[in-house]
Amino acid sequence: MLVLNKEQIAHAIELMACQIINSIDSQTDIAVVGIRKKGIYVGQRLAELLSKKLGRPIDCGSTDITLYRDDIHDPEKVLQIGTTDIRFDVNDRTIILVDDVLHTGRSCRAAMDCVIEFGRPAAIRLAALIDRGNREFPIQADYIGHHLEVRPNETVAVSLEECDGTDEVRVVASN
Prior knowledge:
The longest helix has 18 residues, at 6-23. This protein has a 5-stranded parallel sheet. A 3-stranded antiparallel sheet has the order 1-8-7. It is globular. With 175 residues, it is an alpha/beta fold. The two termini are 15 Å apart. Helix 1 (6-23) packs across helix 2 (38-54). The chain has helices at residues 6-23, 38-54, 106-116, 161-164; strands at residues 2-4, 30-35, 59-63, 94-102, 123-131, 143-147, 154-159, 168-173.
C-alpha cells in the first residue's frame, strides 16, 4: 500500500527541517549525520534544506552502524560493512541523526555509539522520516516527518531516487 509519494516525502522532510529550526536558537551549531543506508539520503536532503533556510552551510556526514549493532555476533548474519564519513568536528555541536524508519530504536542506539567515538557532541537529536512505533529501546525521535500505524506483520519500505530510482514509502506484508 502506497503511503507517501515523491511530493509527500519532500513535504515530510520540509516538516522535519521546520521542526529543527523551531527547536534551536539561531546560534546553535548543528550538523547532520545520516544512518546508512537510506538515512544518508534523507540526511543529505535535510542538510540542504537547513542550509537554505538558515542561510549557512550545514555539515553533513554518514555513519555505518554495522560494527555497533547488538546482533553483530550472530553467526547467521553476513556482515556488509560500509563506511562512516564524518569529516567535521562533532565536539560541542548538536548532531541531528537521521534515519529513514524508526522502529525498534536499535539502529539509533548504535548510531549514537558511533558518533560518540568521534567526540563529545553538545547534544544528539533524532530525526526520522517515518516513525512506525513498536520500540524495543526507550528511544524517541525529536523530529518526525510522518507517523504510521504498522502491524507487526508489516514492513515499511522506503524507496529513494538516489538508490532506487523513485521516491515512495509503502507498507508491505512481511514474509
